Amino acid sequence: MTEKEKIFVTEVDQAEPAITAGGELFRAVTRIITRFHRYGEMIGVDVGNETCNCAARFIRETYPDSPMAATIKAMWGLTWAPTYEKAIARLADETVAFAQSGDGLNGENKWDFTDFDEPEDREWNEEEEEQEEYTHAHPFAVYDPD
Questions:
Q1: Helix or strand or coil: residue 20?
Q2: How far apart are CA 56 and CA 72, in angstroms?
Q3: Quick check: 34 and 53 in contact, CB under 8 A?
Q4: Is the CB of residue 12 less than 8 Å from the CB of residue 26?
Q5: Per 3-state DSSP, what percentage of the chain is helix, strand, and coil (rounded to 5)?
Q6: For residue 34, which of 52, 16, 47, 17 has the smallest C-alpha distance?
Q7: What pLDDT shows up at residue 3?
Q8: CA gyration radius for the chain?
Q9: 60 CB-contact burial (10 Å; exposed 0-12 / middle 13-18 / buried 19+)
Q10: Average pLDDT value for residue range 135-143
Q11: Strand pairing partners for 108?
């Protein structure tokens, strides 16, 4: 986890929607970072559909011309953890740079990224997830069959 990613994980409150638009952007990015580093979940893949897609969709639809939207598009459906991890680091860097530019982030927040879920986000097969549990795991995850 990069230093910028650690800032997201330690400093962003995940419990409630943010007061500002920029705060909600950071909250969405934090969801994507933490779900991968804690559980190996990825946007558009298995249980990641349920846990990450709404945050990714929020970023993509709220800031469609931003570098973050392009990174989210590239991350969607990736299953190779080392590539996904690099993309997460890029997403964190882009989000910090975007926030520093102040481009539309200070306005009142009208969103909760969890409102961006779609029916497809709940259409993953839990049995397949259990069978593929270690296929998509974090690269440092240890396989323990018990």
A1: strand
A2: 6
A3: no
A4: yes
A5: 60, 5, 40
A6: 52
A7: 67
A8: 15
A9: buried
A10: 44
A11: 20
Residue with tokens 């639809």: 61
DSSP-assigned letter for residue 143? P
What does the pLDDT look like over 3-12, one tens digit per residue? 666 666 665 6
The Cα–Cα gap between 2 and 86 comes to 10
pLDDT at 130 over 60: no
- 127 — phi, psi (to 5°)? -65, -40
User: Is the Cβ–Cβ distance between 89 and 8 less than 8 Å?
Assistant: no
Residue identified by tokens 């705060």 is: 23
The structure's pTM equals 0.70
> Rounded to whole angstroms, how far apart are CA atoms 76 and 32?
11
How far is residue 86's CA from residue 7's CA, in Å, rounded to a whole number? 17
Structure tokens at 107: 């306005």
Question: What does the block give as tokens for 36?
Answer: 């991968």
Residue 26's SS3 state is helix
CB 42 within 8 Å of CB 26 = no
Max CA distance (Å), the chain: 50
Distances (CA, A) of 65 to 31, 59, 130: 21, 10, 37
Q: Mean pLDDT throughout 57-74?
A: 92
